[in-house]
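Priority: medium. Attachment 1 of 2:
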């Protein structure tokens, strides 16, 4: 490609790429905490297990509905201070107050209080997520840099997520003698403090890019509206594919990541809950190695090719884990060296590839926003992310219900699974299906959908060339208009 046809990318500084993903990490840290909502709902607010699962499902549906509404308002927001920092700080404040109310201040206040605070939390989470995805698009449009944003986001998430698991299983579990309300309250306060530090770093990183000139208006001169959001879903093939691929994976991950499932795997089937913390710390190293390699290759060869590769590997490893667990005595894991080593290799390998696929999926969202800008002249990164999130959350919200109904069917109707419970065959196979079986189904659907994804590396270069021409033309028109105003 000759030099005059190479897009002049709007790149970010290295430190900005490293610090901005701290905002993504906040939502992922909140996810660690929210996975224990069913425990606080049952133990702190008196809900039945199945009821708690249904409440969480409909709450995530509410979360999905708020996404396009808040996103369109965000894309319409036009201030001299930009928009990203305003939205992210507002969302952050709502999130933190809501989780403190849920886990610390409001325990024992009853069903209605729990529901209201839980819904308020999702409003803050939605605002934070939209700010994140808008910032990811604005920060850089260089195909080589974009995967690096998700590299660092997943790096922080992996390290802090593992640290949270270690903290819970090794410190709080021992301190309070179980997954108690008091243990979850201390976990909540710790996560809020860490999140505040991350928010400050993210605000610093995005400040230079959060300017009005980085948010081009529609070619028609009108503001983004809900009709644009509907048209986006109907006509943008890239978004349609991502909805299928991403939401099927997310549904499986939502179910597998529920605290009840991890308790069943480590606390009941393996019979050593504290081992989860040790495993999570070991898991960091292979996850980061695979993550850095995967995002490097995504920047080099395109996210589509990278996602297909790591999805295939993840699926094979998940199948291998099920076979391995079925053939051995799981209680020997963490006790006997050979099964422990094999378990660590297989499961950490699966986790590493799962994180790599998540990074690649996330990197597709800003690409799709630029694709829509090229197709229609509508620059609406927040709306693109929100339309995807709306469908994604509507589907993945059923993860909590699937788990709640499944564990209720094997005897956990009024209490949550606790370490040391009996590892019956029903518990084993239900745990295996939720932990690794659902992800396999999700990955199969992803591979089928990705055959129709239009945005390979070559296509993205073409899109950035076209968008660059429009930006230059738009800047020239703005300059002429300003000159006329001055001369007038």
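Attachment 2 of 2:
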């Amino acid at each position: 490609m000759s030099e005059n046809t190479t897009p002049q990318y709007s790149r970010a500084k290295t430190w900005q790429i490293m610090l901005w993903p701290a905002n993504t990490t906040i939502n992922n840290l909140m996810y660690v905490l929210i996975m224990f909502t069913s425990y606080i709902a049952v133990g702190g607010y008196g809900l039945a297990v199945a009821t708690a699962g249904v409440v969480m499902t409909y709450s995530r549906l509410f979360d999905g509905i708020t996404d396009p509404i808040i996103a369109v308002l965000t894309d319409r927001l036009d201030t001299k201070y930009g928009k990203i920092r305003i939205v992210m700080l507002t969302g952050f404040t709502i999130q933190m107050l809501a989780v403190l109310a849920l886990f610390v201040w409001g325990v024992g206040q009853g069903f209605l209080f729990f529901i209201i605070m839980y819904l308020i939390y999702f409003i803050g989470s939605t605002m934070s997520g939209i700010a994140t995805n808008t910032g990811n698009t604005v920060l850089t449009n260089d195909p080589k840099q974009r995967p690096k944003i998700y590299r660092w986001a997943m790096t922080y998430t992996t390290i802090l997520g593992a640290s949270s698991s270690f903290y819970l299983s090794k410190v709080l579990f021992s301190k309070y003698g179980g997954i108690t309300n008091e243990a979850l309250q201390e976990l909540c306060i710790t996560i809020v403090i860490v999140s505040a530090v991350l928010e400050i770093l993210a605000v610093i990183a995005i400040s230079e890019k959060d300017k009005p000139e980085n948010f081009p208006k529609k070619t028609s001169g009108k503001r983004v509206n809900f009709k644009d959001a509907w048209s986006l879903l109907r006509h943008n093939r890239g978004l349609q594919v991502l909805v299928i691929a991403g939401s099927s994976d997310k549904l499986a991950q939502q179910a597998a990541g529920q605290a009840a499932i991890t308790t069943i795997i480590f606390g009941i089937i393996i019979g050593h809950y504290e081992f989860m913390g040790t495993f999570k710390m070991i898991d960091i190293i292979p996850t980061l190695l695979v993550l850095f390699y995967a995002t490097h290759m995504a920047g080099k060869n395109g996210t589509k090719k990278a996602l297909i590769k790591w999805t295939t590997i993840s699926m094979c490893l998940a199948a291998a884990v099920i076979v391995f667990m079925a053939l051995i005595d799981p209680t020997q894991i963490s006790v006997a060296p050979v099964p422990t080593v094999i378990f660590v290799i297989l499961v950490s390998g699966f986790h590493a590839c799962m994180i790599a696929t998540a990074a690649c999926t996330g990197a597709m969202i800003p690409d799709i926003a630029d694709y829509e800008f090229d197709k229609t002249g509508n620059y609406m990164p927040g709306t693109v992310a929100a339309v995807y999130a709306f469908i994604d959350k509507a589907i993945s919200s059923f993860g909590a219900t699937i788990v709640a109904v499944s564990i209720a069917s094997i005897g956990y109707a009024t209490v949550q699974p606790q370490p040391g419970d009996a590892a019956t065959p029903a518990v084993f196979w239900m745990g295996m299906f939720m932990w690794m079986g659902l992800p396999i189904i999700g990955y199969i659907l992803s591979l089928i959908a990705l055959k129709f994804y239009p945005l390979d590396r070559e296509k993205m270069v073409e899109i950035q060339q076209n968008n660059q021409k429009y930006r230059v033309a738009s800047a020239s028109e703005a300059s002429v208009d300003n000159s006329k105003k001055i001369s007038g």
